[in-house]
Hints:
The protein is of the alpha/beta class. The protein has 3 domains: 6-240, 3-Layer(aba) Sandwich (Rossmann fold), CATH 3.40.50.300; 256-333 and 418-503, P-loop containing nucleotide triphosphate hydrolases (Rossmann fold); 345-417, no CATH class. It is 33% helix and 26% strand. α13 (372-385) packs across α14 (402-415). It is globular.
Amino acid sequence: xxxxxxxxxxxxxxxxxxxxxxxxxxxxxxxxxxxxxxxxxxxxxxxxxxxxxxxxxxxxxxxxxxxxxxxxxxxxxxxxxxxxxxxxxxxxxxxxxxxxxxxxxxxxxxxxxxxxxxxxxxxxxxxxxxxxxxxxxxxxxxxxxxxxxxxxxxxxxxxxxxxxxxxxxxxxxxxxxxxxxxxxxxxxxxxxxxxxxxxxxxxxxxxxxxxxxxxxxxxxxxxxxxxxxxxxxxxxxxxxxxxxxxxxxxxxxxxxxxxxxxxxxxxxxxxxxxxxxxxxxxxxxxxxxxxxxxxxxxxxxxxxxxxxxxxxxxxxxxxxxxxxxxxxxxxxxxxxxxxxxxxxxxxxxxxxxxxxxxxxxxxxxxxxxxxxxxxxxxxxxxxxxxxxxxxxxxxxxxxxxxxxxxxxxxxxxxxxxxxxxxxxxxxxxxxxxxxxxxxxxxxxxxxxxxxxxxxxxxxxxxxxxxxxxxxxxxxxxxxxxxxxxxxxxxxxxxxxxxxxxxx
Length: 503
């Protein structure tokens, strides 16, 4: 249980970006041994507030106190010195270095002036043992799945022996089993008096595991309440300022003729999909489920051509296509919304215009010149139809919240007018209101006769929006569940049974 000692207090925090007031007299308080959820819609100011705490951003005004003493944190190193650590939603790791090198970056153990690799290995194993994390410290971190990289980053934060730990969407890429493991770690840390700030949009796990909930909206503090006194609907109302009765829009799409056939598809480099076969119909939303390591992402990337295939066929409207790279895939009517928007989705140093139009740039060229009028019009369509919160089209996308960045990426691909839209975790790290908007966009595509393939770790999401759910298990297709059939409420049980088929 949470203690009575106040570890952290943030009062009247303001932060302004060009054209955006991100924080407006925001406040937050954390007790020792407390797991405290911080919630709000995308753009509410949650991550910005925590980045001000961690020294990534410099607050414009306000006061930050740790254990009753006011502090002025200038940068992340300074924050760590004060016992404040943070795991960011978008992982920032040196991908071609080992797990243990990423763990001890900037503080390598040394012996006689040289890096002591043996001690580094042993110290990493010791922390992994304490946290029950099964990773090889010598593995290259870029070769690991997002979930394993996430666990390595959490172990790194624990190694700093911090008093306050901020976790920004830590379960967004974790399957149920991995998320439960993470909460066991969090509760163990809280039991030692560590204060945990937990940013998430997953309300069910927050109500189960957190002591208190603070809700922000439009950069302002709205409420702080005991989690036991809240329901999911009450949290939603605090977040969006209104009642949101349905989590999913009504299904109005009607699948038709077969649009895409995938036959015996096997990736060239392992781990990848193995002998995968399925079809996709016009107007259909096909979900892809599976445990971490089931190679859902590898399947859609092999179909799209960003991962090379060893064998098998991809057939569109009865004609074989050869997606040898993303350019050919786009010409063949495919689009792919990738899982990691920071690494493979956005161009952070470019503006909304560039990020909206980059996949469709040829359509704006005439006689060697770009039509700025048409570019502005189409960017306006992305901003308006996706309901992107941005001061202007010229705002750099890095200044938008994660959810608004995701909306720009989806809008980019819709502008390309694909026949087949592949979406890998399209609602990862997105609030409940924005999720509904994206579900509606997906349904609109299906209603227009497009075929949509959606990878998701959230089974309620797949069950709520998909026509069929393909289940992957260790690289193979373990089965396909037709959501138009009556499964008597046992859909999740059936999916989990198939997901374990080849493990």
